[in-house]
Amino acid sequence: MGLTTTLNVTRCEEGYSSAVITRRKVNKAIITVYFTDESMCTRPNEELKCVKSCPPEKTCQNCDTQFECIDNATEICKKECICKEGFYRNNKGDCVTREMCDEAMCTRPNEELKCVKSCPTEKTCQNCDIQFNCIDNATEICKNECICKEGFYRNDKGDCVTKEMCGKIKSIYK
User: Fold this and answer.
1) CB 108 within 8 A of CB 173
2) What is the pLDDT of residues 109-133, one digit of tens each?
3) Whole-prediction pTM value?
4) Half-sphere exposure of 136 (CA within 13 A, CB side)
5) What is the CA radius of gyration of the chain?
6) Under DSSP, is residue 24 helix (H, G, I), strand (E, B) or coil?
């Protein structure tokens, strides 16, 4: 019969990880098994980091947003599983590349994900011939939205169609 001792190390100096150390005596031999914080992050392209509330983790929704974190120098960081550099958390909780973000978010044909401001508005069949003059929106923060690709216009059904198809009533996509 073996004897098992488990030691939880939770306080660590800066730069060191916490660990769970399990020692088991089996047939007069002592087996030591280390489980570190890194084993907490089980999804691909994740890593454990000590992070503050600002900036938030990069996600598919905020990947083009620039965050300005004001006065969080005194905030204590918390260890969390975040996406590795170059990866973004999608709506399923996975860490994916930027290209995979765009594909997953914009599911209709001829759509793409772009960080856009309120002006100019998305080109639609109703406004396809209007020239927008956007004044003083340089400080406005853009938001990621699925918009029609260049040369396509949003129709009444929400589809992205060519200008020639704008007069058609029936949706061409289900």
Assistant:
1) yes
2) 998 878 888 888 888 998 888 888 8
3) 0.44
4) 0
5) 25
6) strand
